[in-house]
Design brief:
mainly alpha
Length: 89
């Protein structure tokens, strides 16, 4: 097992309450588990090479002039084209 090093932190009341609520939910045995899970999530976000590679493209696409269309609009357009094709038979 890896060596455990104890740390002491001061947290705002809201974060402290959040940790307590996670422990009370039964998903975590104690506050240390909650903090470790949060740090692992932060570590994953920081070191995920695919995310780092794709993030600039994602931001570029968000800023592009192309806009996304709601799926319902796309389905309506497909239905309309299919109806027109069927009516033209």
């Amino acid at each position: 097992m890896s060596q455990i090093k104890k740390r002491t932190f001061s947290l705002p009341q809201g974060l402290s309450d959040f940790i307590d609520s996670k422990v009370e939910s039964g998903n975590y045995a104690n506050s240390s588990e909650v903090v470790r899970a949060g740090l692992r999530a932060l570590q994953d976000a920081d070191y995920d090479p695919l995310k780092k590679k794709l993030s600039p493209k994602f931001e570029e696409n968000k800023q592009s002039q192309h806009s996304a269309h709601p799926i319902n609009e796309l389905y309506d357009e497909i239905r309309s084209r299919n109806k027109s094709a069927m009516d033209g038979r």
